[in-house]
Design goal:
By secondary structure, this protein is an alpha+beta fold. The protein is built from 13 helices and 19 strands. An 8-stranded mixed beta sheet has the order 1-11-12-13-16-10-9-4. Strands 5-7-6 form a 3-stranded antiparallel beta sheet. Strands 8-14-15 form a 3-stranded mixed beta sheet. The chain binds one RNA strand through helix 3 and helix 4.
Length: about 425
RNA sequence: GGUGAGGUGGAUGAGCGGCUGAAAUCAGUAGUUUGCUAAACUGCCGUACGGGUUACUCUGUACCGCGGGUUCGAAUCCCGCCCUCACCGCCA
């Protein structure tokens, strides 16, 4: 979340940036500042009264030790009076603080200057394209047909076991998943990312820290008996490794990668858009995450974009990189690049990665800080990106590399797949 | 799941109603000295939110797993919860 201090010192600028993100309640900023004023006032009054109580309590101890019982009893009466005053103060303080917090989490992150103006996905800006769109042979079909033809994924049985959107990978389909995960992780660790296998369920505090709560609970599966949430992305458990920590400056940047299944309820959409592997409730993804010094975060963002781009190049997939406009960005992000690959048989661009800089928005919630060279404690910046999400990569691989004889996998995957062709 | 023990600052670990925001040791850090692939000595060394100054300093409050309670006063007593460890049970 945003820091109240920033709202205070750059009020007009904050409102202007919120508008770029299509945020419609600029008056919240003023409300938050006035709530914070009230909070300070109450705390000041509370602290001063509490200080009197503390001083008197010490005095009582001394008087008792001297055997001056009368004076001690008299002082107790004073204390009783102050304590009576403290109670309503405390109540108000808690109330104001809760309200302040409740309002503060409603403010999305501020967009970076480089973020284009715009409301809808149509206004996203294509930064660059790469790779070659393949010329498919005459018999080419969409991936859902290929999946049937080669018996790679059994959606019907997945639906029987759980529900629609829970694919059952099978045979070479399952092996391809494993190959991709292995390749992606090796690619990431070679670039200096430390591999993790995190828990796939998280508690409320973790879901809050990365911004899934309070307002995206509808997106997550909720294990109510224990109040755990199934992770929608590895970002949640992995970023939370550093919740409530102060790291040394020398430890930065912290680079982490993890494969996890991801669970998303994705309520409300259907049809061709979600056919086959285009959109599912459970999917596999390898994520990269960095915690860095604030002044480094934009260079790191570029580095991560390049990292993902090179991965797509290695897979020989036609791709394009979009800079999302203010209205299409996520709530917690300061700037986001989406990566799309061209699924040749569907003739559609499919999103396979999203790389974002969150600046200090997540780390402020998480209380992830570092000590700078002056010994001052500062928030780190956090970034993450998919490297990569599997289902749409699979869809694209199947469609783009199909031949009459089978699917000829790109070079880099062959050692992991243990073969060259799906047939 | 059952039983028992325990959760104190970066680590180990003392304190078990007021002198404790917290001993000691280690680690860290700044310096002094001797000198050499290091040792000795000295200082500093938690976080958050305030006040005041806004440069350093100064000052208030809160925090000893979390939340409540008792008390003039709680790390210290009581209750609930969470977590860790050990043993048993069950199990991939």
């Amino acid at each position: 979340m945003l820091q109240v201090q920033v709202l205070r010192s750059h009020t007009a600028e904050v409102k202007q940036k919120l508008a770029k993100k299509q945020f419609k309640q600029p008056e919240l900023v003023d409300l938050i500042i006035s709530l914070d004023d009230e909070r300070k006032r109450l705390q000041n009054e509370f602290d001063q009264t509490q200080a009197k109580v503390n001083a008197a309590s010490k005095e009582i101890g001394k008087l008792m030790a001297q055997g001056n019982k009368e004076a001690a009893e008299a002082t107790k009466l004073d204390v009783a009076g102050w304590k009576a005053a403290l109670e309503p103060l405390k109540e108000q303080m808690v109330k104001v603080e809760e309200e302040l917090q409740a309002k503060l989490v409603l403010l999305p992150n501020l967009p970076a200057d480089a973020v284009p103006e715009g409301k809808t996905p149509e206004e996203n800006v294509v930064v660059r394209e790469g790779g070659q769109k393949p010329a498919l042979y005459a018999g080419a079909v969409p991936h859902w047909d290929l999946i049937k033809q080669y018996d790679l994924v059994d959606f019907e049985t997945g639906a029987k076991i759980t529900g629609s959107g829970f694919p059952l990978y099978k045979g070479k389909g399952a092996k391809l998943q494993r190959a991709l995960i292995g390749y992606f992780l090796d690619y990431n660790t070679a670039a200096g990312y430390t591999e993790y296998i995190p828990p796939y369920l998280v508690n409320e505090a973790s879901a809050f820290a990365t911004g899934q709560l309070p307002d995206k609970e509808g997106q997550m599966y909720h294990a109510t008996a224990d109040n755990f949430f199934l992770i929608p992305t590895a970002e949640v458990p992995v970023t939370n490794i550093y919740r409530d920590t102060i790291v040394k400056e020398s430890e930065l940047p912290i680079k982490m990668t993890a494969y996890t299944p991801c669970f998303r309820r994705e309520a409300g959409s259907f049809g061709k858009e979600v056919r086959g592997l285009n959109r599912v409730h459970q999917f596999d993804k390898v994520e990269i995450i960095q915690l860095v010094k604030p002044d480094a975060s934009y260079a790191v963002l570029d580095e991560m974009v390049l990292h993902v781009e090179n991965l797509l190049k290695a897979l020989q997939l036609p791709y394009r990189i979009l800079r999302l406009c203010g209205g299409d960005m996520g709530f917690t992000s300061a700037i986001t690049y989406d990566f799309e690959v061209f699924s040749a048989a569907q003739e559609r661009w499919l999103e396979v990665s999203s790389v974002s800089n969150f600046e200090s928005y997540q780390t402020n919630r998480m209380k992830c800080r570092y000590k700078d060279e002056n010994g001052k404690t500062q928030l780190t910046h956090s970034l993450n990106g998919s490297s990569l999400a599997l289902p749409r990569i699979v869809a694209c691989l199947l469609e783009n590399f199909q031949t009459a004889e089978g699917i000829e996998l790109p070079e880099v995957l062959r050692p992991y797949f243990g073969g060259t062709t799906i047939n």
